[in-house]
Design brief:
By secondary structure, the protein is mainly alpha-helical. The chain contains ten helices and two strands.
C-alpha cells in the first residue's frame, strides 16, 4: 500500500480530515460508501472520527486516483499485501492510459491535417464523405469518430454545430449527430 507516515495520535472529524488532505467532505463520504475509507469510530452524536491509519489510507487512495486507477480497483489494492494484484491493476491502468493516448494522437493527426490545409474548410471543399476519409486516413475507426464528435460536442457545442454545417450535412442529420453526441 502507498502510505505516508504520520506522527500523530490525534483523531480528526471528517471536516478536519478533508481540510488537512485537500479533499471535499463529499469525496470522503463517497470513499466511505465505496468501502475505501471507513472512520475509526463514531461518537454517540454520529460524528465520524479518523486517526493516523485512516489518514495513511486516504493518502494511498489519493495517490492511486492520481494515477487514474478507477475507484472500483483501489479497494483490492489497499486490502492486499503489495505484490501481484497491485502490479496487475497498475498494468491494466497503464494499458488503458496508453489506449487513451493513442485516441488523442489520432485526434491530433486529424487536426494537423486540417491545419496544414485550412483552405479545405474555408472554401468548403470538405464534405461529410471527404471528412470521413480524412479521419480514416488519420487512423480513426467508427468508434473513434463517434468519440471525437462526443468530445467536440462536450467542449464546443456551437463550434460543433458550425463544423457539421460546414460539411454540407442536412439539418436533420446535424441534429441527430449532436443528439447522440450528447449521450
Amino acid at each position: 500500500m502507498i502510505a505516508l507516515p504520520f506522527e500523530r495520535s490525534e483523531m480528526l472529524t471528517i471536516t478536519e480530515l478533508a481540510r488537512r488532505h485537500d479533499v471535499s467532505r463529499t469525496t470522503i463520504l463517497y470513499y466511505e460508501r465505496e468501502g475505501l475509507l471507513l472512520p475509526r469510530s463514531r461518537s454517540e452524536n454520529g460524528y465520524r472520527w479518523y486517526g493516523e491509519q485512516e489518514e495513511n489510507r486516504l493518502e494511498a487512495i489519493k495517490a492511486y486516483r492520481s494515477y487514474g486507477v478507477p475507484v472500483r480497483d483501489i479497494c483490492s489494492l489497499l486490502d492486499i499485501p503489495e505484490g501481484m494484484e497491485q502490479e496487475r491493476v497498475l498494468r491494466r491502468q497503464f494499458a488503458a492510459l496508453e489506449n487513451e493516448i493513442q485516441k488523442l494522437r489520432q485526434q491530433q493527426n486529424a487536426i494537423v491535417m486540417l491545419l496544414e490545409h485550412p483552405e479545405l474548410l474555408e472554401q468548403q471543399m470538405v464534405n461529410k464523405e471527404r471528412w470521413v476519409e480524412i479521419m480514416k486516413a488519420a487512423g480513426f475507426d467508427e468508434q473513434a469518430m463517434q468519440n471525437w464528435h462526443k468530445q467536440f460536442e462536450k467542449m464546443e457545442p456551437e463550434a460543433h454545430q458550425e463544423f457539421l454545417e460546414s460539411l454540407s450535412i442536412e439539418a436533420e442529420e446535424v441534429k441527430a449527430i449532436r443528439e447522440w453526441s450528447r449521450k
